Amino acid sequence: MPICISPELPAYHTLSEENIFVMDSDRAAHQDIRPLRVLVLNLMPKKIETECQFLRLLSNTPLQVNVEFLHVSSHISKNTSQNHLATFYRTFSEIQDQYYDGCIITGAPVEHLAFEDVDYWQEICTIMEWTKSHVFSTLHICWAALAGLYYHFDVPKYDLPQKMFGVFPQHVLEPHCQLLRGFNDVFHAPHSRHAEVHREDIEKVPQLKILTESELSGVHIVANKNGRQYFITGHSEYDRDTLKGEYFRDKEKGAEIAVPYGYFPDDDPTKEPHFSWGCSANLLFSNWLNYCVYQQTPYDLTALELYNWDWQAGL
Is 25 annotated as contributing to ligand binding? Predict the structure, then answer.
């Protein structure tokens, strides 16, 4: 949360230059407060597991967050009952006239396909376009990050010779970015994907900035400089045992799969995996909710359609 101090205090100017959020007493006295509305477009096969992962992270702030779940209508889920979807999920046609403070678009196990070959691609494009006028800030996770960069900015994805699989060190490139407030210079994040984006393609797009990357796993977090879109190629939401479950699932299928990097102690799958990304995962989502959404979103969400898309949030 922000600190409230006098603008005459010397520290006010110093902290402001570091992009630390401070407010004066006048703004504090006139703040309008309401619950945040966050929409989660869940594309993962094990939807209930994914629901728990994101809800844990979204619950870790003092803010009241009302979370709704969305599924695509152009794809039949094989791993989640239709009763569960009918009870707890909505389709785009049901919410397209509504407005949200934040949206999360999850990963999906379709990186091996060309975007246009994904059976729900057109629906995803419609939803991603809709977020620009009906959502204040959108997180795109893993496949959704690749898809969002491709749809919004024509950034191509590249197939990997083998799965990017494990927990990799990430380097902070923009330490004063609000999304990364309080991060160490190096932190860890899980990855589980068959495709990637390249730095040189992103650097060709003036609206984009790379916030974190790894020498091993490549580009990690990319931001639209207007603060309204974030593209995260990893899975910070993963539980301790998620990669373990994926590894043994693939082994049982007879697939060629390497032991996930930096995950099991001594690379021994019989040992309990390290949970080395929990702090950074909680901080990432707390920062997003507080700095990138709560402190910036309009009180009247219908004003989103009138917002200047080139507005600068000050990454």
Answer: no
Q: How many CB atoms lie within 10 A of CB 191?
A: 26
Please report the pLDDT score of residue 251 as a whole number: 92
Q: Would you say 240 is a known binding-site residue?
A: no
Q: What is the pTM of this model?
A: 0.89
Name the helix (H) or strand (E) containing 103. strand 100-105
Residue-wise pLDDT for 249-286, tens only, equals 999 998 889 999 999 999 999 999 989 999 999 999 99
The phi, psi pair for 269, rounded to 5°, reads -65, -10
Q: So which residues are the catalytic ones?
A: 142, 235, 237
Contact 69, 48 (CB under 8 A): no
Higher pLDDT: 88 or 197? It is: 197
How does the average pLDDT of the chain come out, rounded?
Answer: 89
d(CA 135, CA 103): 7
Is 236 flagged in the annotation as binding? no
Contact between 102 and 38 (Cβ < 8 Å): yes
Residue 75: which of 121, 12, 136 has the closest Cα? Answer: 121
Domains plus CATH for the chain? 1-31 (no CATH), 32-240+281-302 (3.40.50.880)
Write the DSSP symbol of residue 207. T
Phi, psi of 57 (to 5 degrees): -75, -35
